[in-house]
Amino acid sequence: MTPVLRTLTAAATALLLAFPVSAAARERDVPSPGPLPAGAQLGQFDSTVLQSDAGAMRTARAAGPAPRRYATPDGYSVAVEASSDYPVDPVADQKLVDFLASRVHGAELGDLSVYVGTPKEISQLCGGDPEVVACYAIDQGRMYVPGESVRGIPVEYPLTHEYGHHVASRRSNSPWDALDWGAKYWSSAMRICSGVRSHLLFPGNQGAHYWDDPGEGFADGYAHMHYPEAPWYYNQLLRPNAKAFTAIQRDVLHPWTGPRSRTFHGRLGRRKRIRTFHIRLTLDGDVRLALAAPRGAVYEVAAETRGFAAGQRLRDSGEFGVEWCRRRPVDEIELTVRRRAGSGPFTLRVSWPG
Protein backbone atom coordinates (compact mmCIF):
# COMPACT_ATOMS: atom_id res chain seq x y z
CA MET A 1 0.00 0.00 0.00
CA THR A 2 1.08 3.49 -0.43
CA PRO A 3 2.54 4.20 2.98
CA VAL A 4 -0.22 6.26 4.65
CA LEU A 5 0.96 8.54 7.41
CA ARG A 6 -2.00 9.39 9.60
CA THR A 7 -1.07 12.11 12.06
CA LEU A 8 -3.35 11.90 15.07
CA THR A 9 -4.89 15.16 16.27
CA ALA A 10 -4.01 16.69 19.61
CA ALA A 11 -7.42 15.67 20.92
CA ALA A 12 -6.89 12.04 19.96
CA THR A 13 -3.42 12.12 21.50
CA ALA A 14 -4.86 13.49 24.73
CA LEU A 15 -7.42 10.69 24.76
CA LEU A 16 -4.70 8.06 24.39
CA LEU A 17 -2.62 9.63 27.13
CA ALA A 18 -5.65 9.31 29.38
CA PHE A 19 -6.10 5.53 28.91
CA PRO A 20 -6.40 4.20 32.46
CA VAL A 21 -4.84 1.04 33.73
CA SER A 22 -7.78 -1.11 34.70
CA ALA A 23 -8.22 -1.94 38.35
CA ALA A 24 -8.26 -5.62 37.47
CA ALA A 25 -5.76 -6.37 34.73
CA ARG A 26 -7.39 -7.76 31.58
CA GLU A 27 -6.70 -11.24 30.37
CA ARG A 28 -5.11 -11.68 26.93
CA ASP A 29 -6.13 -14.24 24.37
CA VAL A 30 -3.24 -16.53 23.49
CA PRO A 31 -3.08 -17.36 19.77
CA SER A 32 -2.42 -20.93 18.74
CA PRO A 33 -1.56 -22.57 15.41
CA GLY A 34 -4.17 -24.70 13.67
CA PRO A 35 -7.73 -23.95 12.59
CA LEU A 36 -9.48 -20.84 13.83
CA PRO A 37 -11.27 -21.31 17.15
CA ALA A 38 -14.69 -22.93 16.90
CA GLY A 39 -17.44 -20.36 16.53
CA ALA A 40 -15.14 -17.64 15.18
CA GLN A 41 -17.10 -14.92 13.41
CA LEU A 42 -14.92 -13.44 10.69
CA GLY A 43 -16.84 -10.37 9.66
CA GLN A 44 -15.35 -7.51 7.68
CA PHE A 45 -12.59 -5.58 9.37
CA ASP A 46 -10.10 -2.97 8.26
CA SER A 47 -6.40 -2.72 8.89
CA THR A 48 -4.15 0.13 7.91
CA VAL A 49 -0.52 0.79 7.13
CA LEU A 50 1.32 3.82 8.52
CA GLN A 51 4.65 5.21 7.42
CA SER A 52 5.91 5.37 11.01
CA ASP A 53 4.84 5.31 14.64
CA ALA A 54 2.82 8.38 15.63
CA GLY A 55 3.51 10.19 18.89
CA ALA A 56 0.52 8.55 20.59
CA MET A 57 1.92 5.14 19.68
CA ARG A 58 5.28 5.95 21.25
CA THR A 59 3.53 7.31 24.34
CA ALA A 60 1.40 4.18 24.73
CA ARG A 61 4.43 1.94 24.39
CA ALA A 62 6.39 3.99 26.93
CA ALA A 63 3.55 3.59 29.46
CA GLY A 64 3.85 -0.20 29.43
CA PRO A 65 6.67 -2.58 30.27
CA ALA A 66 9.91 -2.33 28.32
CA PRO A 67 10.05 -4.48 25.19
CA ARG A 68 11.43 -7.98 25.52
CA ARG A 69 12.82 -10.18 22.78
CA TYR A 70 11.69 -13.78 22.45
CA ALA A 71 13.42 -16.48 20.43
CA THR A 72 11.82 -18.57 17.72
CA PRO A 73 12.66 -22.25 17.11
CA ASP A 74 14.52 -21.34 13.90
CA GLY A 75 16.83 -18.81 15.49
CA TYR A 76 15.10 -15.45 15.05
CA SER A 77 13.94 -13.14 17.81
CA VAL A 78 10.90 -10.86 17.98
CA ALA A 79 10.44 -7.82 20.21
CA VAL A 80 7.10 -7.74 22.07
CA GLU A 81 5.52 -4.93 24.06
CA ALA A 82 2.09 -5.02 25.70
CA SER A 83 -0.34 -2.40 26.91
CA SER A 84 -0.25 -1.46 30.57
CA ASP A 85 -3.87 -2.68 30.64
CA TYR A 86 -2.49 -6.22 30.51
CA PRO A 87 -0.38 -7.88 33.20
CA VAL A 88 3.25 -8.58 32.40
CA ASP A 89 3.14 -12.08 30.96
CA PRO A 90 6.34 -13.45 29.36
CA VAL A 91 4.62 -16.80 28.82
CA ALA A 92 1.88 -15.19 26.72
CA ASP A 93 4.51 -13.16 24.85
CA GLN A 94 6.49 -16.30 24.02
CA LYS A 95 3.33 -18.05 22.81
CA LEU A 96 2.59 -15.06 20.58
CA VAL A 97 6.07 -15.29 19.07
CA ASP A 98 5.73 -19.06 18.67
CA PHE A 99 2.47 -18.45 16.82
CA LEU A 100 4.13 -15.98 14.45
CA ALA A 101 6.93 -18.48 13.87
CA SER A 102 4.26 -21.00 12.82
CA ARG A 103 3.26 -18.72 9.92
CA VAL A 104 5.07 -19.22 6.61
CA HIS A 105 8.02 -16.87 6.99
CA GLY A 106 11.55 -16.00 6.06
CA ALA A 107 14.31 -13.93 7.62
CA GLU A 108 11.95 -10.94 7.89
CA LEU A 109 10.59 -12.50 11.09
CA GLY A 110 13.76 -11.34 12.86
CA ASP A 111 12.99 -7.71 11.89
CA LEU A 112 9.55 -7.71 13.52
CA SER A 113 8.27 -5.88 16.58
CA VAL A 114 4.80 -6.33 18.04
CA TYR A 115 2.68 -4.11 20.27
CA VAL A 116 -0.32 -5.80 21.88
CA GLY A 117 -3.12 -3.53 23.07
CA THR A 118 -6.78 -3.67 23.99
CA PRO A 119 -9.12 -3.52 20.97
CA LYS A 120 -10.21 0.03 21.82
CA GLU A 121 -6.62 1.18 22.25
CA ILE A 122 -5.48 -0.40 18.99
CA SER A 123 -8.37 1.22 17.11
CA GLN A 124 -7.35 4.63 18.47
CA LEU A 125 -3.64 4.13 17.88
CA CYS A 126 -4.27 3.01 14.32
CA GLY A 127 -6.11 6.18 13.38
CA GLY A 128 -9.39 6.20 15.32
CA ASP A 129 -11.60 4.35 12.83
CA PRO A 130 -13.69 1.86 14.86
CA GLU A 131 -13.56 -0.61 11.95
CA VAL A 132 -9.76 -0.81 12.14
CA VAL A 133 -8.69 -3.87 14.10
CA ALA A 134 -4.89 -3.71 13.61
CA CYS A 135 -2.21 -1.75 11.78
CA TYR A 136 1.41 -1.89 10.69
CA ALA A 137 4.06 0.85 11.02
CA ILE A 138 6.50 0.51 8.14
CA ASP A 139 9.61 2.28 9.37
CA GLN A 140 9.73 0.33 12.62
CA GLY A 141 8.49 -2.98 11.21
CA ARG A 142 5.98 -2.99 14.06
CA MET A 143 2.53 -4.59 14.19
CA TYR A 144 -0.14 -3.08 16.45
CA VAL A 145 -2.53 -5.92 17.21
CA PRO A 146 -5.37 -6.62 19.65
CA GLY A 147 -4.80 -8.85 22.65
CA GLU A 148 -8.42 -10.04 22.59
CA SER A 149 -10.97 -11.05 19.98
CA VAL A 150 -12.75 -8.12 18.34
CA ARG A 151 -16.41 -8.46 17.36
CA GLY A 152 -15.93 -12.22 17.28
CA ILE A 153 -12.77 -12.00 15.16
CA PRO A 154 -10.13 -14.18 16.86
CA VAL A 155 -6.69 -12.65 17.39
CA GLU A 156 -5.09 -15.24 15.11
CA TYR A 157 -6.55 -13.68 11.98
CA PRO A 158 -5.43 -10.03 12.31
CA LEU A 159 -2.05 -11.26 13.54
CA THR A 160 -1.63 -13.28 10.35
CA HIS A 161 -3.00 -10.50 8.11
CA GLU A 162 -0.61 -7.93 9.59
CA TYR A 163 2.29 -10.32 9.18
CA GLY A 164 1.40 -10.39 5.47
CA HIS A 165 2.04 -6.63 5.43
CA HIS A 166 5.35 -7.20 7.19
CA VAL A 167 6.37 -9.71 4.51
CA ALA A 168 5.47 -7.21 1.76
CA SER A 169 7.45 -4.45 3.49
CA ARG A 170 10.58 -6.60 3.18
CA ARG A 171 10.07 -7.57 -0.47
CA SER A 172 10.73 -5.85 -3.81
CA ASN A 173 8.25 -5.44 -6.64
CA SER A 174 10.22 -2.80 -8.55
CA PRO A 175 9.17 -0.47 -10.16
CA TRP A 176 6.21 -0.60 -7.77
CA ASP A 177 6.02 -0.67 -3.97
CA ALA A 178 5.30 -4.20 -2.74
CA LEU A 179 3.27 -2.77 0.17
CA ASP A 180 0.94 -1.19 -2.41
CA TRP A 181 0.98 -3.82 -5.13
CA GLY A 182 1.85 -7.02 -3.26
CA ALA A 183 5.11 -8.91 -3.67
CA LYS A 184 6.44 -9.63 -7.17
CA TYR A 185 5.36 -13.23 -7.83
CA TRP A 186 1.86 -12.77 -6.37
CA SER A 187 1.38 -9.42 -8.09
CA SER A 188 2.33 -10.93 -11.44
CA ALA A 189 0.25 -14.07 -10.95
CA MET A 190 -2.82 -11.99 -10.06
CA ARG A 191 -2.28 -9.58 -12.98
CA ILE A 192 -2.33 -6.56 -10.67
CA CYS A 193 -0.74 -4.31 -13.30
CA SER A 194 -3.58 -4.97 -15.75
CA GLY A 195 -6.18 -4.43 -13.01
CA VAL A 196 -4.64 -1.07 -12.14
CA ARG A 197 -4.51 0.06 -15.77
CA SER A 198 -8.15 -0.93 -16.17
CA HIS A 199 -9.06 1.22 -13.11
CA LEU A 200 -10.35 -1.83 -11.25
CA LEU A 201 -7.63 -1.97 -8.58
CA PHE A 202 -6.21 0.93 -6.57
CA PRO A 203 -2.82 0.35 -4.92
CA GLY A 204 -2.41 2.00 -1.54
CA ASN A 205 -5.92 3.46 -1.45
CA GLN A 206 -6.92 3.28 2.21
CA GLY A 207 -10.10 5.28 1.66
CA ALA A 208 -12.94 4.73 -0.80
CA HIS A 209 -11.11 1.85 -2.54
CA TYR A 210 -9.83 0.05 0.54
CA TRP A 211 -11.34 -3.26 -0.64
CA ASP A 212 -9.72 -2.78 -4.07
CA ASP A 213 -6.22 -2.22 -2.67
CA PRO A 214 -3.79 -4.94 -3.88
CA GLY A 215 -1.63 -4.37 -0.80
CA GLU A 216 -4.54 -5.41 1.39
CA GLY A 217 -5.35 -8.21 -1.03
CA PHE A 218 -1.84 -9.61 -0.66
CA ALA A 219 -1.96 -9.42 3.15
CA ASP A 220 -5.35 -11.12 3.28
CA GLY A 221 -4.30 -13.66 0.66
CA TYR A 222 -1.40 -14.48 2.99
CA ALA A 223 -3.90 -14.87 5.85
CA HIS A 224 -6.12 -17.08 3.66
CA MET A 225 -3.16 -19.30 2.88
CA HIS A 226 -3.26 -20.21 6.58
CA TYR A 227 -7.07 -20.01 6.95
CA PRO A 228 -8.60 -20.93 3.57
CA GLU A 229 -12.03 -21.35 5.15
CA ALA A 230 -12.23 -17.64 5.99
CA PRO A 231 -14.69 -15.52 3.98
CA TRP A 232 -13.34 -13.19 1.31
CA TYR A 233 -14.40 -9.53 1.40
CA TYR A 234 -11.94 -7.88 -0.99
CA ASN A 235 -12.25 -7.29 -4.73
CA GLN A 236 -12.92 -10.57 -6.52
CA LEU A 237 -9.91 -9.94 -8.78
CA LEU A 238 -7.79 -10.40 -5.64
CA ARG A 239 -9.52 -13.58 -4.40
CA PRO A 240 -6.78 -16.15 -3.76
CA ASN A 241 -6.63 -19.50 -5.54
CA ALA A 242 -4.05 -22.26 -5.79
CA LYS A 243 -1.95 -20.15 -8.17
CA ALA A 244 -2.02 -17.23 -5.73
CA PHE A 245 -1.01 -19.41 -2.78
CA THR A 246 1.90 -20.86 -4.76
CA ALA A 247 3.06 -17.35 -5.66
CA ILE A 248 2.79 -16.14 -2.04
CA GLN A 249 4.81 -19.12 -0.84
CA ARG A 250 7.49 -18.24 -3.38
CA ASP A 251 7.41 -14.57 -2.39
CA VAL A 252 7.96 -15.53 1.24
CA LEU A 253 10.47 -18.35 0.91
CA HIS A 254 12.31 -17.48 -2.33
CA PRO A 255 11.65 -13.79 -2.96
CA TRP A 256 12.37 -11.97 -6.19
CA THR A 257 15.79 -10.33 -5.99
CA GLY A 258 15.90 -8.25 -9.16
CA PRO A 259 15.71 -8.28 -12.94
CA ARG A 260 17.40 -10.58 -15.38
CA SER A 261 19.65 -9.10 -18.04
CA ARG A 262 21.22 -10.07 -21.32
CA THR A 263 23.45 -8.36 -23.86
CA PHE A 264 23.00 -8.81 -27.62
CA HIS A 265 25.51 -7.83 -30.31
CA GLY A 266 25.07 -7.14 -33.99
CA ARG A 267 26.00 -4.99 -36.98
CA LEU A 268 23.78 -3.02 -39.33
CA GLY A 269 24.50 -1.60 -42.77
CA ARG A 270 23.09 -1.41 -46.27
CA ARG A 271 22.86 -5.17 -46.63
CA LYS A 272 21.63 -5.90 -43.10
CA ARG A 273 19.13 -3.26 -42.02
CA ILE A 274 17.51 -5.09 -39.10
CA ARG A 275 18.46 -7.56 -36.38
CA THR A 276 15.97 -9.46 -34.23
CA PHE A 277 16.33 -11.05 -30.79
CA HIS A 278 13.91 -12.66 -28.34
CA ILE A 279 13.22 -12.81 -24.59
CA ARG A 280 10.40 -14.40 -22.58
CA LEU A 281 8.57 -12.36 -19.93
CA THR A 282 6.92 -14.27 -17.07
CA LEU A 283 6.63 -11.40 -14.56
CA ASP A 284 5.34 -7.83 -14.74
CA GLY A 285 7.68 -4.88 -14.30
CA ASP A 286 10.26 -2.72 -16.05
CA VAL A 287 11.68 -3.75 -19.40
CA ARG A 288 14.72 -1.56 -20.13
CA LEU A 289 16.72 -1.40 -23.37
CA ALA A 290 20.11 0.33 -23.64
CA LEU A 291 21.77 0.75 -27.05
CA ALA A 292 25.39 1.55 -27.81
CA ALA A 293 25.91 2.35 -31.52
CA PRO A 294 28.52 4.18 -33.68
CA ARG A 295 28.63 7.96 -33.62
CA GLY A 296 26.19 9.42 -36.10
CA ALA A 297 24.19 6.22 -36.47
CA VAL A 298 20.43 6.37 -35.96
CA TYR A 299 18.97 3.02 -34.94
CA GLU A 300 15.39 2.30 -33.95
CA VAL A 301 14.95 -0.07 -31.01
CA ALA A 302 11.60 -1.76 -30.34
CA ALA A 303 10.12 -4.43 -28.07
CA GLU A 304 6.94 -6.09 -29.29
CA THR A 305 4.53 -8.84 -28.35
CA ARG A 306 1.13 -9.66 -29.77
CA GLY A 307 -1.09 -6.70 -28.88
CA PHE A 308 1.60 -4.33 -27.59
CA ALA A 309 4.77 -2.61 -28.78
CA ALA A 310 7.11 0.08 -27.49
CA GLY A 311 10.12 1.64 -29.16
CA GLN A 312 12.32 4.66 -29.68
CA ARG A 313 14.63 6.05 -32.33
CA LEU A 314 18.09 6.55 -30.82
CA ARG A 315 21.10 8.47 -32.19
CA ASP A 316 24.55 7.11 -31.29
CA SER A 317 23.56 5.59 -27.94
CA GLY A 318 20.65 5.81 -25.54
CA GLU A 319 18.18 3.90 -23.46
CA PHE A 320 14.53 3.76 -22.52
CA GLY A 321 12.19 1.63 -20.46
CA VAL A 322 8.56 0.65 -20.24
CA GLU A 323 6.40 -0.68 -17.39
CA TRP A 324 5.32 -3.95 -18.92
CA CYS A 325 1.98 -5.59 -18.05
CA ARG A 326 1.92 -9.07 -19.56
CA ARG A 327 -0.90 -9.88 -21.99
CA ARG A 328 -0.67 -13.60 -21.25
CA PRO A 329 1.11 -15.84 -18.71
CA VAL A 330 4.26 -15.72 -20.86
CA ASP A 331 4.85 -12.83 -23.26
CA GLU A 332 7.18 -13.77 -26.09
CA ILE A 333 8.90 -10.45 -26.79
CA GLU A 334 10.60 -9.72 -30.07
CA LEU A 335 13.39 -7.14 -29.85
CA THR A 336 14.38 -5.38 -33.04
CA VAL A 337 17.21 -3.00 -33.88
CA ARG A 338 16.53 -1.27 -37.21
CA ARG A 339 18.90 0.94 -39.16
CA ARG A 340 17.58 4.39 -40.06
CA ALA A 341 20.89 6.14 -40.77
CA GLY A 342 24.57 5.31 -40.49
CA SER A 343 26.00 1.85 -40.02
CA GLY A 344 28.23 -0.26 -37.87
CA PRO A 345 28.23 -2.56 -34.84
CA PHE A 346 25.91 -2.15 -31.88
CA THR A 347 25.37 -3.57 -28.43
CA LEU A 348 21.87 -3.92 -26.98
CA ARG A 349 21.59 -4.56 -23.25
CA VAL A 350 18.17 -5.66 -22.05
CA SER A 351 16.85 -6.12 -18.51
CA TRP A 352 13.46 -7.53 -17.60
CA PRO A 353 11.80 -8.79 -14.39
CA GLY A 354 11.88 -12.47 -15.31
Summarize the structure in words.
With 354 residues, this protein is of the alpha+beta class. The chain has two domains: 10-174 and 249-253, Glutaredoxin; 260-352, Jelly Rolls (Sandwich). It is built from ten helices and 14 strands. The chain has helices at residues 10-17, 55-63, 90-102, 119-125, 156-169, 178-181, 184-189, 192-197, 214-226, 242-253, and strands at 46-50, 68-71, 77-82, 113-117, 132-137, 142-146, 260-268, 274-281, 285-292, 298-305, 308-315, 317-324, 331-341, 344-352. The strands form three sheets. A six-stranded mixed beta sheet has the order 1-5-6-4-3-2. Strands 7-14-9-12 form a four-stranded antiparallel beta sheet, with no helix packed on it. Strand 3, helix 3 and strand 4 (113-117) form a beta-alpha-beta unit. Helix 1 (10-17) runs parallel beside helix 2 (55-63) and helix 5 (156-169) crosses helix 9. The protein is elongated. It starts with 9 loop residues before the first helix and ends with a strand. The model is unreliable at 1-23 (pLDDT under 50).
